[in-house]
Amino acid sequence: MRPALDPFSFLVISIAGWMNQHQQHVIDYLIEENRVLRKQISNRRPRFSDDQRRRLAAKAKKLGRRLLAQVATIVTPETLLAWHRRLIAKKYDGSGHRTPGRPRTATEVAALVTRMAEENRNWGYRRIEGALANLGHVLAHNTIAEIPKPHGIEPAPERSRKTTWKDFLTRHWEQIVASVVSNK
To answer: Which residue has the higher pLDDT, 10 or 79?
Structure first.
């Protein structure tokens, strides 16, 4: 007849039981520590960062709703699982996919390009590109060429050939005044 447990099996079962008991003591300590900390923060609602929510939600999802109902003390199981849906599962729902093509030029940079093109009629796209580079903005001259079009600003060669009345009067103001004064 064979003994109920050989010495090796008995040793393995004893160690497994001791490790399980040790883990249970650690869990009991952590639960009590949570209770003490919750008592210290009293009625103030805890605030979590998205990273903290993500970490808690990942751990909570592994436990499941039933076990969470027994263990969760900071927030409800529903909240934890909702965080999981919002922060972790969102990665796979397709909402984060970008549209095809290059990202749009920043609004501030586009406004700066438009302003430079309006104020400096004889500047070409490469000159504007250099001025932007001096300010720390890197854009290709082809991109700079596309930005003023929706604002009705003509391309660089035509822009420099056409003189506005404002430019004409500014340049010839002294001659106009002199001719008006001399005719009186």
So the answer is: 79
